[in-house]
Amino acid sequence: MSTSRSQCSFLVEWFDTESSTTRTFVLNFWTNDQNVEMIDVKKNKIFLRKTSCDGVLLKDLFVGNSVKVFSRILKIVNYADAYTKNYLESTNYQCSVALFRPHANDKKSELLQDLINHGFEFINLVMIEFNEDIKKAMSQSESTARIPISSMLNGPVVVFQVRSINAVQKLQDVIGPEDREEALSNYPHSVRSSCRIYSFLPLIQK
């Protein structure tokens, strides 16, 4: 299978409800015209000829995400070739996770919109209630042990995953320093200048 500089290729899985089996395909995506093509890996033959498909964008094509190609939900499980891996990783797209503490809930719409305005794409967003099991797990994790978990127990917590170029550092810059007084003095436009938010579990999307 040849790969031009305008073509990116991914290994994807699709659960066929008629046969109750998971089928594996190569999904080819052309960055110049956003056309797609699907090749059945097992049969080594074209399943869907190159065609345009609304709603499939390069920014959505990363390992772990799912995209809809016509009526099929395709789970991206890997890159199909070294070129695609190197090309996409050179753009340095990353994912990062953060949360709002309960007292920020009345401002969550405003704060989430602020992140969108800074170019973040939301991958997942959930609202959870912290219980003792979550509290124990976070206290034992090096990446979350510093978070004052007691302040998370007085209401629902909004946890979200975002994606952007250089998302890990960019999210830290938008949030501002952990010291709120420093945020108010030196970073007046940061999220922490108006509301406390703790970033945790930075996830670099490879």
Describe this structure in words.
The chain has helices spanning 82-90, 108-117, 132-139, 167-175, 180-186; strands at 7-16, 21-30, 35-40, 45-52, 66-69, 72-79, 93-100, 121-128, 157-165, 197-199. With 206 residues, it is an alpha+beta fold. The strands form 2 sheets. A 6-stranded antiparallel β-sheet has the order 4-3-2-1-6-5, with helices on one face. Strands 8-9-7-10 form a 4-stranded antiparallel β-sheet. Strand 5 (66-69) and strand 6 (72-79) form a beta hairpin. The longest helix has 10 residues, at 108-117. It is elongated and about 60 Å long. Belongs to the NDK family. Residues 4-92 form the DM10 domain. Keywords: Cell projection, Cytoplasm, Cytoskeleton, Kinase, Transferase. It is found in: Cytoplasm, Cytoskeleton, Cilium axoneme.
Q: Topology of this structure?
A:
Blueprint: E1 7-16, E2 21-30, E3 35-40, E4 45-52, E5 66-69, E6 72-79, H1 82-90, E7 93-100, H2 108-117, E8 121-128, H3 132-139, E9 157-165, H4 167-175, H5 180-186, E10 197-199
Antiparallel strand pairs: 1-2, 1-6, 2-3, 3-4, 5-6, 7-9, 7-10, 8-9
Family: Belongs to the NDK family.
Subcellular location: Cytoplasm, Cytoskeleton, Cilium axoneme
GO molecular function, one term: kinase activity
